[in-house]
Amino acid sequence: MSKVDDTKHVAADGQEKVPTASETGGPIILFFMIGLALSLVVGWVIFPKLLYSQKKQPIDFNHVQHMELVDDGCESCHFFRDDGSFSGAPTLAQCIDCHEEVQSDTENEIRFVEEYVQKNREVPWLVYSKQPQCVYFSHVAHVKMGNMDCVTCHGHIGESTELPVYEQNRISLYSRNIWGKNIGGFKKNTWDRMKMDDCAECHVKEGVRQASVQTGKGGCFVCHK
Amino acid sequence: MKHTGNIGKPKRYGMVIDLDKCTGCGTCMVACMAENNVPFKKDESNKLDSITWLRVYRLTNGKPYPDNEVCYLPRPCQHCAGKHEGHSPCVSVCPATATDYDQETGIVSQIYTRCFGCRYCMAACPYHARYFNWWDPVWPKGMEKALNPNVSARMRGIVEKCSFCFHRYQKAMEKAHMEGRRELEEDEYQTACTQACPAGAITFGDLNNPEHKVHQIAQPDPAKGGRPRNPKVFRLLEELETNPKVYYLSSREWVQEACHKPHLLDQKTAHH
Question: How far is the alpha carbon of A172 from chain B, nearest alpha carbon, in Å?
Answer without folding.
Answer: 13
